[in-house]
């Protein structure tokens, strides 16, 4: 097995997330504000439709999946009995990263349209990211792992990818072939996180860290090859039409300064900083072809879901208080439909 190095950026950015994942944290003090009620118990479906799915962080429904109608996200929420630390869904398939019963270990559960478990896999770390391909066939997750003797107790990351049709499991990307600037590259300190799939189910984008640098990589599942695309791109999220990536980048190249949310045009290479200027330590999701959503922390153990236009205009808008891990369940617009609007 290839050694896994320390990733200093993980320490700076994700301590709060790890605390939330490991234990249930009570209501924290914060600015006086109206927080939405926990919601109404009911059936939550992953079937495509005009809804947002998220994880509740409200005190009496913490970690439960919630469904909120769109575009009127200020309305009531439906609360499921299913609980997750991180979740994602597309085309009726969901991935739920959760505690394994009463143990302090975690598992990845593939869900069907009615949240029925289809397959369960043990996880070897603390959940951090999750995504599903647009077709619902491919699911992926990222976890933090510790305990390697050489990394000084810092965090490393590990990616898993599951083909729900064939059952084939990729347990790590660290043994794949890597091309940096089109040249073969080998190193002991390769780490990967934040996968997002293309529409063909055979390719994806992700973040790679090595030698203190973070790069966007393009992955090919058939050849098990990763090719670098651009530096300082983390947690990419591919747009519905496959032409743009929402991502976070370290301010001034230093994660200690926070992260800026932007959109990369894959054809021309143009980067558009979005109107959200607060530090976004999340893998954003596309609500539609014009809008991305993300979670922002609010005090210890709490967060809210916001969204912002993907073209750099407008202002951030609060859409789901006391929630994180947002997912848009509406089917993606076809490119010709987007062009007509």
TrEMBL record:
Pfam families, alphabetized: PD40 (PF07676)
Annotated InterPro entries: 6-blade_b-propeller_TolB-like, WD40
Superkingdom, taxonomy of origin: Bacteria
Annotated protein name in UniProt: TolB-like translocation protein
Native species: Embleya scabrispora
């Amino acid at each position: 097995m290839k050694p896994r190095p320390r990733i200093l950026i993980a320490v700076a950015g994700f301590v709060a997330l790890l605390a939330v994942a490991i234990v249930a944290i009570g209501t924290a003090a914060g600015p006086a504000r109206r927080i939405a009620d926990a919601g109404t118990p009911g059936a939550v479906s992953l079937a495509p439709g005009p809804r947002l799915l998220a994880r509740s962080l409200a005190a009496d429904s913490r970690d439960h999946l919630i469904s909120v109608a769109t575009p009127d996200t200020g309305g009531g929420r439906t609360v499921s009995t299913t609980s997750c630390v991180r979740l994602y869904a597309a085309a009726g398939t969901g991935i739920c990263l959760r505690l394994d019963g009463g143990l302090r270990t975690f598992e990845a559960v593939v869900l069907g349209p009615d949240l029925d478990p289809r397959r369960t896999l043990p996880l070897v770390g603390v959940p951090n990211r999750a995504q599903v391909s647009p077709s619902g066939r491919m699911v992926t997750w990222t976890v933090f792992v510790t305990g390697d003797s050489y990394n000084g107790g810092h965090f490393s990351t590990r990616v898993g990818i599951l083909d729900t049709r064939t059952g084939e499991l990729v347990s790590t990307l660290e043994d794949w072939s890597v091309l940096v600037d089109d040249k073969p590259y080998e190193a002991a300190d390769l780490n990967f996180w934040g996968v997002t799939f293309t529409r063909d189910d055979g390719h994806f984008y992700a973040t790679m860290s090595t030698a203190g640098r973070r790069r966007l990589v393009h992955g090919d599942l058939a050849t098990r090859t990763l090719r670098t695309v651009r530096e300082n791109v983390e947690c990419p999220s591919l747009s519905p039409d496959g032409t743009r990536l929402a991502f976070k980048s370290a301010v001034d190249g230093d994660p200690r300064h926070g992260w800026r949310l932007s959109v990369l045009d894959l054809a021309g290479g143009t980067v558009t900083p979005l109107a959200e200027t607060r530090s976004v330590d999340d893998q954003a999701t596309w609500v539609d072809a014009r809008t991305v959503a993300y979670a922002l922390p609010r005090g210890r153990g709490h967060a809210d879901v916001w969204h912002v236009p993907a073209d750099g205009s407008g202002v951030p808008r609060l859409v789901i208080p006391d929630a994180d891990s947002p997912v848009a369940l509406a089917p993606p617009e076809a490119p010709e439909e987007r062009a007509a609007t």
